[in-house]
Design a protein that fits this description.
Strand content: 15-25%
Order of helices and strands: HEHEEHEHHEHEEEHEEEEH
CATH class of the domain at 277-419: Mainly Beta
Largest sheet: 7 strands, antiparallel
CATH architecture of the domain at 277-419: Sandwich
Length: about 425
């Protein structure tokens, strides 16, 4: 049977300077909060209008092209998204944070060309408290008060989801619950990813509908078989694109606030005292944010199934709507050592703080699996690999064992893809 090539559709995206801003704050180490402490911010707003143009070839003409070329083509995975348009500027202590958009301004899935900005806000803080269990209960009540919910709860950390238009107020309330040892606020614009995915979905849906009409009119059995295969593939791609849009919409409508709770007598976590500068970054690692990415170069990975690439310029961060996330960075191999050297350094400095710390090899990477001490523990995967003067670092935060079962194989696959 002769095979066919059937290029289905062509979409031309012209994405004029989208906006992204990032507002971040991080005090060095876990310092005591003093009366004169100020809130450092790095921020930029540059939300230009986005112009999108699309063009679709007719299925009839594409069918003729397919017959002439003699094979059935395939398209890329449906999990891809639009290009990133992200910038960052550094401001001083008096920088003004950009306004938080309300949930009513988010783009609607059925209208992906909407110019409304879709921003994923995330706050992280470390609080020193007298009784972590009571503070955890208070944080859970706070989430309910603000119309949100608890995503993860244990005696050592709590993750809340609150509506985007109440993020700033909720985060300020959280900071009042204890002594602030560290904090960070970030915002990632996912508008372009949402818009481009929406356009691809609409184009694929229109093409599939026209192919169904062609199938009903076709008299040639080979042509019918090719059409059925392409309709099936388009249906699978549509499912993937719609899932991606739902995840991006969820990230933009509900902000995330993660709080690490430390008892007043326990301040060892994250302590970099006595460390040389070359190893201090290890102690500053945390499973709850990807600030380490700003310390090195972008290390692209294959996006694990079920997650979306937040498409940050200069960083790779992929996240699922259920709170799981993966990020990566290329650091300098200094002091110079091999993969085992760096894994030993990480294991010695972090392993004792967790219920278990197991090291294994994954496709040329060394990976340590750290399990939280709580009754409902999270899993933190840290993978390293050395290539010459580069130290590759990949981290994954998995809120529970169920998340590890869901994403574990995909994360291993991403590491393997980076090794090949």
């Amino acid at each position: 049977m002769r095979s066919f090539v059937f290029p289905l559709f062509q979409v031309v995206f012209v994405l004029m300077l989208g906006g992204c801003w990032s507002n971040k704050h991080s005090e060095s180490g876990y310092q005591e909060r003093s009366q004169g402490a100020h809130y450092k911010q790095r921020t930029e707003i540059d939300f230009d209008d986005m112009e999108v143009a699309g063009a679709m070839a007719s299925p009839e003409s594409l069918l003729m092209d397919r017959k002439a070329s003699g094979g059935i083509g395939s398209s890329g995975r449906g999990s891809g998204g639009g290009g990133g348009g992200y910038g960052m500027a550094v401001g001083g202590a008096n920088s003004v944070a950009p306004p938080v958009p309300t949930s009513s301004t988010l783009a609607e899935p059925d209208n992906p060309e909407s110019p409304a900005r879709m921003v994923h806000y995330e706050g992280w803080t470390v609080l020193r408290v007298a009784k972590p269990d009571e503070s955890a209960d208070a944080l859970a009540a706070l989430a309910e008060e603000f119309g949100g919910h608890v995503e993860k709860l244990s005696f050592s950390h709590v993750t809340l989801r609150v509506p985007v238009d109440r993020f700033e107020e909720a985060f300020e309330r959280v900071l009042e619950m204890g002594d602030v040892l560290d904090r960070l606020v970030s915002a990632e614009d996912v508008t372009e990813a949402f818009v481009s995915t929406g356009l691809r979905r609409r184009t694929a849906e229109a093409t599939r509908d026209r192919l169904i009409v062609l199938l009903a009119k076709s008299k040639d059995e080979k042509e019918k078989l090719a059409l059925v295969r392409e309709i099936q593939r388009l249906t699978e791609e549509l499912d993937s694109l719609e899932a991606r849009m739902r995840m991006l919409g969820d990230l933009a409508s509900l902000s995330r606030i993660t709080v690490e709770l430390l008892e007043r007598d326990s301040l060892s976590y994250g302590n970099t005292d006595g460390e040389t500068a070359e190893f201090a970054w290890i102690r500053s690692l945390t499973p709850f944010h990807a600030e380490i990415c700003s310390e090195g170069d972008k290390l692209p990975l294959e996006v694990p199934d079920g997650m979306v690439d937040l498409e940050q310029r200069g960083h790779f961060v992929a996240e699922g709507a259920d709170g799981a996330r993966v990020w990566s960075v290329e650091l300098e191999n200094n002091p110079e050592g091999d993969t085992h050297f760096w894994m030993s350094a990480i294991s010695e400095r972090l392993g004792a703080d967790f219920a278990s710390a197991e090291v294994r090899e994954v496709a040329g990477w060394q990976q340590i699996r750290l399990v939280d001490r709580s009754d409902d523990p999270y899993i933190w995967l840290i993978s390293v690999r050395v290539e010459g003067r580069s130290l590759f670092l990949v981290e994954a935060y998995l809120p529970s064992a169920e998340h590890e079962e869901r994403y574990g194989a995909a994360i291993d696959q991403a590491l393997q893809g980076r090794s090949s």
